[in-house]
TrEMBL record:
Location, primary (coarse class): nucleus
Keywords: DNA-binding, Nucleus, Transcription, Transcription regulation
InterPro entries cross-referenced by the UniProt entry: B3_DNA-bd, DNA-bd_pseudobarrel_sf, Plant_B3_domain
Cellular component terms (Gene Ontology): nucleus
Protein name in UniProt: TF-B3 domain-containing protein
Organism per entry: Lolium multiflorum
Entries under SMART domains matching the protein: B3
Localisation: Nucleus
CDD domains tied to this protein: B3_DNA
Length: 160
């Protein structure tokens, strides 16, 4: 009879064992690459100022790339992109500049709003705007229609 190699527990080193195979555990945190895909800002100051500061982490994430522009797309709104110039004035200091004011007006960004950004790559950020009650704002494109009805506005139901 052929002899097989056994571990001290009596189990062989075949498939599914705890032998020298690859682990399904994630790598330790020190080996993970920092990837910033989503972030949000709380609007504490007038959103209609010419330049508006973003978080330091996204500025550090884009360090070296420093795009001259980003393209904002309202989530669930279609393919329209809003071109917004970007300023960097030091490490961790990134601002949305020319074009931000137009986007903020069109999408109801106001004091107390939370603005969620998702980096899609190629300098495109998908944006969701939440009001002070933490309800998402929905909007319609008024450029194509003169109808001022609220048919495209979804109500927010906030439990008390």
């Amino acid at each position: 009879m052929a002899s097989t190699s056994r571990t001290p527990t009596g189990r062989g080193r075949g498939r599914g064992g705890r032998g020298g195979g690859s682990s399904s555990l994630p790598p330790p945190p020190s080996t993970l690459t920092l990837i910033i895909e989503e972030f949000f800002i709380v609007v504490y100051e007038d959103p209609l100022v010419k330049k508006y500061a973003l978080t330091k982490k996204i500025a550090y994430y884009l360090d070296g790339q420093e795009p001259a522009k980003v393209y904002l797309r309202a989530a669930d709104y279609g393919p329209r992109l809003w071109t917004v110039e970007v300023l960097f004035d030091g490490p961790g200091r990134m601002y949305l500049d020319k074009g931000w004011e137009n986007f903020a007006i069109a999408h109801g960004v106001d004091l107390g709003c939370f603005v969620h950004f998702k980096y899609e790559g190629d300098d495109v950020l998908t944006v969701k705007v939440f009001d002070g009650t933490m309800c998402r704002k929905y909007y319609s494109d008024d450029e194509d229609t003169d109808d001022e009805s609220d048919d495209n506005v979804k109500p927010c139901i906030h439990p008390l």
